[in-house]
Amino acid sequence: MLKDILSISGYGGLYKYVSQGRNGIIVESLEDKKRMPAHASAKVSALDDISVFTETDDMSLKDVMKAIFDKENGGPAIDYKSSDSELKKYFGVVIPSYDKDRVYTSDIKKIINWYNILHKHNLLNFEEKVEEKSELKDEAKEDVKVEKVVKEKKAPKAKNVTKKNEPAKTGNKQTRRKV
Question: What does residue 46 show for φ and ψ, rounded to 5 degrees?
Answer without folding.
Answer: -75, 135
